[in-house]
C-alpha cells in the first residue's frame, strides 16, 4: 500500500518541520527579547 506509507512519510515530514520551525522561532525570540523574557523561556 504505497498511499499509506506516503501519508505516513508526509506526516513525519510535517511534524519535523514544525519542530524545527518552533526551535528557530524560539531562537529568534531569544535574540530579539530582553532578559526577562529570556529567563522565562530559559534561553
UniProtKB/TrEMBL annotation:
Keywords attached to this entry: Membrane, Transmembrane, Transmembrane helix
Transmembrane segments: 6-31
Protein name as it appears in the record: Uncharacterized protein
Source species, domain of life: Bacteria
Biological source species: Xylella fastidiosa (strain 9a5c)
